[in-house]
Amino acid sequence: MKKHKDLIALLRHNQQRITPARRFLLQFFIDNPAKRLSLPEIQAHLQDKLPGINRSSIYRNLEMLKQLSVIQELGVPGQGKRYQFVFEQQVHHFIICKACGKVVKGNRNLFEKVEKALKEIHDFQKANLSVTFYGFCSKCQAVEAG
Amino acid sequence: MKKHKDLIALLRHNQQRITPARRFLLQFFIDNPAKRLSLPEIQAHLQDKLPGINRSSIYRNLEMLKQLSVIQELGVPGQGKRYQFVFEQQVHHFIICKACGKVVKGNRNLFEKVEKALKEIHDFQKANLSVTFYGFCSKCQAVEAG
DNA sequence: CCATATAATGCAACATGATGCAATTAAAAC
DNA sequence: GTTTTAATTGCATCATGTTGCATTATATGG
Lengths: 146, 146
Hints:
Oligomer: homodimer
CATH superfamily of the largest domain in chain A: Winged helix-like DNA-binding domain superfamily/Winged helix DNA-binding domain
């Protein structure tokens, strides 16, 4: 409940109106903080609460939440785009294996090293979200070599 | 000419057949090594050489070249996907400003730091391509703060 | 050079995402 | 509570990618 209120406040603070669609969407992310949700999943859920809700409204609201760094969008190869709740969560990067598709959460140490390098070398800041690395995990490196 | 032959060899080595579409596509990338090409640009060019060439063939060939690390795909906000030649080029990351959309090539130092961190911390390798950072460049940081 | 196996293409249909505009609804002002 | 006004929504349409399948073309082996 607290997070819901905080998020409503965040939206208001950014001159965003509070609509039923937005309430349900926020709650859905709050209730699934660990999941990487696909659009069909989100749409199916909202359809329950608000029959007839339009695809484009969902896309527009996801875009808005992305802008406010409430959610993060990530492209999982072969699975389309996914959306994950990141508001007041421990921030991290994602690392995706190009061979087996495994998604790993980068740890704090990696995050800080990358952050520091971006700041020091290119004077880029707040590059904390929406970063996804693609490579080969240790298991698939072995397979590739063999 | 040399690069063209090298690339043809690379394709053959990976059990890929050499078709007219692939030759023209490769040559187009060779001739525009610095450009971040959009699909419409690529399609328009190929249309000249091979009238009636189909969208899906281009997509499939771009996907194949991505797999072979001949090209890199990057999503520029507000401009859709772009494709850049990276074969035998100096490898680097891209840094994109979320505010002004400016695309910056990350330098060698950044690349090595990130590479090292990924290897040491998560045992991920060859994570050299397809990495795009989104953040705020120094100019837009100032604007945001003001 | 010709026959064969199989990969690439074109095509049609579908999936996903974006956009302009009229109708609706949230918020603010009275 | 009613009115006002501006943002959000739904809808239609378009743009961009993806996929299954029949057709075509490349590579290979005789």
